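hey so i finally got around to running the thing on that chain from the lab meeting. sorry it took forever, my laptop kept dying and i had to restart like 3 times. anyway pasting the input first so we r on the same page abt which one it is
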Amino acid sequence: MLTGASPVAGCDGLRMAPGGLVSEVVDGDTVLLESGLAVRLIGTQAPKLALGREGLADWPLAEAARDALRTLALGKNVQLGYGGEERDRYGRALAHVFIEADEGSIWAQGQMIEAGLARVYSFPDNRRCLDQLFAGEARARAERLGIWSDPYYSVRAADRPADLLDRVGDYELVEGRVLLADRSGSRIYLNFGRFWKEDFTAVIEAPALRLFERDRRDPLELEGALVRIRGWVDERDGPRIEITHPEQIEVVARP
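ok and heres what got predicted. didnt touch it at all, straight out
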């Protein structure tokens, strides 16, 4: 359950713009404004509703997430905060949503994450306010709130590649120790097992490496570290996740 009108502070450095009245809540991370503008709550991924799309099914707790966002935002005026790319290919605004309330401004993303009704979901061209969202997610996960009590959203073990192969095409959190961090040409591989053609691997391509360099982070220093990787699982020489920006890797413990 959402905590109601207690505002979540700390999302700074955004380009603020008027939003307007929320006229519809599509799902747990998308709202429609009275102006007709669709707004995607950037930085979060709530459980998805199929919404009549063929071949798709509702994710667990998808209706609960939508209903919680309805309670929080429907019929309320909002301000939009932009911290990177401002539109996606569907024309939706990619924004942090701040709901006007008597008690002050309520950060919708923070509230949904804190309630365990969304995960942190970041992009290389939209990286503002992630530290605060990660902290909120960690608290919700520790308290097993919302999605974190459902096995569908469990953090996966990197040393169980067969289980990860069952999740190909899904967005997952995968935790394990980096056995080898190695550069090959223009990319870096983080290997989580001794058999790189079978075990789980995180791959960092050249464009992402430039972001790591800009942030003065060296992925090669992750060898031996316990980390949590988040992203879409695919299969190429075993299960893997492509890393497009540094925030996809959380260091749980250094060697």
